[in-house]
Amino acid sequence: MSEQKYHLSIGGMNCAGCVSRVETALRAVPGVTEASVNLVERSAWVRGTVAPEDVIAAVRQAGYEAALLQEEQDTEEKAAAEMAHYRRLLRHAGIAAVVGVPLMAADVFGVMPHVETPMERLFWLLIAIVSVVVMAATGGRFFVGAVKSFRAHNATMDTLIALGTGAAWVFSTLVVLRPEWVPEAARHVYFEAALIIIALVNFGSALEMRARGKTSEAIKRLIGLRPRTARVVREGRELDVPIAEVGLDETLRVRPGERIAVDGVVIDGRSAVDESMLTGEPLPVEKYAGDEVVGGTLNTTGTFLYQARRIGKDTVLSQIIEMVRQAQASKPAIGRLVDRIAGVFVPAVLIIAVLTFLGWMNVGPAPAISYALVATMTVLIIACPCALGLATPMSIMVGVGKAAEAGVLIRKGEALQRASQLTTIVLDKTGTVTAGHPALTGLYPAEGVSEEELLTCAASIERGSEHPLAQAIVQAAQARGLALRASSGFESIAGHGVRAQIEDQDIVLGNQRLMAQQGVALDAFAAQAARLAEEAKTAIFVAHAGRLLGVLAVADPVKPDSRAAVARLQSLGLKVVMLTGDQQATAQAVAREVGVDEFIAEVLPQDKAAKVAELQQGGAVVAMVGDGINDAPALAQADVGFAIGSGTDVAMESADIVLMRGSLHGVADAIAVSNVTLRNIKQNLFGAFIYNSLGIPLAAGVFYPIFGWLLNPVIAGAAMALSSVTVVSNANRLRLFTPRREAA
Amino acid sequence: MLVIINILGLLLIALIVWWFWMATPRAVRIAGDIVDIRVAGGVYTPAQIQVPVGKPVRLRFLRQDATPCARQVVIPRLERVFELELNKPREVTLTFPESGEYEFACEMHMYVGRFLAA
Fold this sequence. Notes:
Helix content of chain A is 52%, strand content 19%. Chain A is α+β, with helices and mostly antiparallel strands. Chain A is elongated, with a radius of gyration of 36 Å. Chain B is an alpha/beta fold. The termini of chain B are far apart.
């Protein structure tokens, strides 16, 4: 067994004595060569020829908990492997350059011997041997890759590099060994070109690798949100255990400034939780008993106990990471087209290279073999399928990551492309434009009655009711911290309201018809009631002993930023349509308030998909925005389905894009990111196509008869190495994009 | 001499067309309950694998190629993507719902292989 390195999460350590005990236990395991324990991080690094299970068993035997931090280990190892490869590429570039550059300099300054006398040939033979050794050491992988690809009926970048540099070396060696086979004027060697090209390609790969690392920063940041340990409450004691050991329904505590370990429900205590890293919502969200909390979010000042409801791969954060990974690797239609081109690209370049050789041999000036060889080599070297292949995935990687940072989860690359082509946005009203549940929106007390008195009275009666309107009143009273009074004799008057006694006083609460039945005069409130009806609000009257105490207005309120988000969508050139099952008057009131271009009222849930289809038949490219549950068929029918989330449910199969926070700004953010990503892909593809379609003819010498242009293979190598670096760097520009600022 | 060069050149072009675009490598049949696919030297070995339709197929990828492109395997028709760590076997189970070709490739589409479901 080879030596392994493990990172363990250690639970139950409280002091330096624990550190010593765990370290002793670890070092006692046969095969362990090194062990170090960190009390602050409650973790340990272990190195040795030992299985992880044995290490964990030893820690447990010592009275502590241990678990393998797999993700952590993977990340560390991955980073180490990537760094090793990066250094290897640079080292290879350096070695090839150290040999190639002096040879080239000597050639440029004319101090190199010719290939004529036996001594000169011996000198060049030595150079040929040194070159082939350096080429094998620093560019051997190109040759191995080329042979393997060839045997698999495939041709890659390696094929081109190996053929280009290999042809240069073979021809040069032929000149040295059998000069009589080559016309006198063509007796030139190209060892330095082969070496410098290999140096440049290695250097370009190293630069590309460095730039690539930055494209996956978003996913690294998400992975970094996972806490390593959690504080669980077991048998009345609080213990720090590795995150992998938290069980479902276990009670956990989170202290101020700590990250919440797993998804759960608050059972005791309260605090404000910063969820911005997942939802993009900048303000901390107040959490009380019964509220859901999401693993990876940051507790601010309070402390609370919560019960684990989702752990491991089921947590929202794990699902987000997986979703982002999948989306980053998926390609829109434009990318799949490029894949088809990339699939035939290298063989096509090989054919062009052969035609170039034949062309120069047939019609080229003397020495034709030299021109033919140089031009063929240059064609092979300058062609860069990497730039084409990288163009789409690099931009998607950054674009999807950027969207995730703003709380917008793009499930597939295809959605990015379609979102940039939208003409119409259909918004479901309830839960999308509005909050989705009734809330108290106004209090209108009668003369001599305070707002608090009116609300206390209404909430004290409604406390016993489960009606959504009643709950809205009770919640409003609780939010204001009002002390409710005891009520008795609660009686529901179906379709009208309720009656109850508070401190022996008979109170009625209900609609206008109930007031009429009770002989309560509405007086000035009649006009108020009419106005509330126009605004699609429900008026609830409260009366005592035939006298009106006031009116409460309850409605499903429009989200505070819906109007601004609709305006922002319109500023992006989109037509905004609202769809609702509500009656015309209610729909009209909400439509007016948020400023949509059009509304369609009285649509049954099952007919929403048909309405979307109708708009599509009219030529519109439609996005549907809904809650992802009731609107699933409409979301699936739309060109792009947006599920507007609660921040906890991300696995919405029917949606192409999931918005982690409830704001409609997420839709505009997603469209803005899509537009900018698609633009970036097109820039990359344009650059890659232009590069290849100008570079290859230039290398082949097409412009030689007119302008006398013929490219040096070393310049071609530099251009090729830079082309893929340029593509990755351009994709990295997307990291600077901020959706809100640019699109507002 | 030039005539011979021209004929050789044209034959070479014909060979390129035939080898890369027309001839296909022999597909490997699944023997046992798992297929090992090695990712090294710019290719998947084996690159053509015959798989049954509708039955779960266990695959074990081993990436021995440090090139960043080799990190991801994308199977567009199944909408599956998975990452390969260097020198660490990665096991995946796939089910091919209908007969036909299912291409698998690296993110840049340079490493290409095919599952032939029948």
